[in-house]
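User: Quick sanity check before I run a bigger batch. Here is a single chain. Can you write out its predicted 3D structure?
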Amino acid sequence: MSDDQNLGMFQSSPEEWAASREPRPACPVTGMAAEFDPFGASHVADPFEFFRRARDEEPVFYDPESGYWVVLNYDDIVAVLRDPATFSAALARHPVTPLCPAAAEMRDSLDISIEPSLVDEEQETHLRHRKIFGDAFTPKRVAEIEPRIREIVSDYIDRFVDDGCAELVGQMLYEVPALAIFIFLGADDDKAVMVKRLGSSRAVVNWGRPTEAEQVRMMAQMGEHWAFTKKLVDDALADPGDNYLGDLVRLHREDPGIFTVNYLCNVMFLMQFAGHETTTQTAANGMKALLADRRQWEAICEDPSLIPAAVEEILRYDSSIFTWRRIATRDTRIGGLDIPKGARILVALGSGSRDGKVFADGDGFNIFRKQAKRHLAFGHGAHFCMGAPLARLELRIVLEELARRLPHMRLVPGQQWEYIPTLTFRGVQKLLVEWDVSGNP
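Assistant: Done. Predicted structure follows.
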């Protein structure tokens, strides 16, 4: 693929930005495309009704407003994700809304060196790097941090267990995943919340419709986050610890040719964002779903052995990444439709994970479901999420500790569900819960 097609993170020109503000030319649209409004209030609140009808009526359609071919059926999504040679990942982190000139100028002034890494690099390079970084992501490394994560979750519950109420996202789920990824990487715990704050706007700037001010502010935060990451890697190069980053440094010392120091910085920069934001949102969505159905919440409280299955159903039913993007490297076909070279593809993972042809009563939440693990929450194929074991561990611990400590917890009635409007990320922003401090239902 040529350099102009290898669309790296935050790359956009003033011309692209200006063009994005111009009205798109009118052209005929299909029924589902006419209804597709990914940033509309109703779609942001609940995209799944649209997904269900589109799977039945038009499972692949072109949306001229966004410029994406939208793919909704499980089998079609899997076919796209299994063929990275035809459907390149280069588009994955490219901003949905091109950077405005002021933000692009700030980006160019920063002392950072972003390059494609793991989620958006070309197939051959990805396979080589995935082998190295994936093999280092060992079950031993994940398992050895379980006691510390459980301790952190318990400490957060201690802070509100006697209050009779909590806002679970702000009081626990926002920070715990950031601390977990820091422990795994070998960073100092006291910097985790700072990094969480620095990355808090990235989902909107990269996958939403940010204002110019938001873009400029995020680019400044990006520079600060990059400086932190660079120091993290430099410190590990000088003194590698007994952790995942230390393991990678030791691999680099043995053979400096397997990846560059800058590439290592890029992977660490990516993992610090992807390793916590997605888990925060999935945990919030999952607790909302469980507490909305007392039978299923009480089932895991009475029998914690059901929790691993509940984790998989949460990931299937309402995962934090509900769409992802690809770009066609050649003329091809999806679902019987001709797709031209250069076409931008939006695979609706959240739709595929509810496809009734694969999951009986796919729009229903059921922790007793047998085939839930076939979900697409972590993607599929060569780019399957490397951090899936860590995410599953965190979600399991959160459910285990909340079910053990607060089995009588319930949703506060009448609350409004808030979601940030982005093309890709979905997570309830506040989750109000209450319980009787006496321990009675």
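The longest strand covers residues 324-328.

User: Great, the batch can go ahead then.
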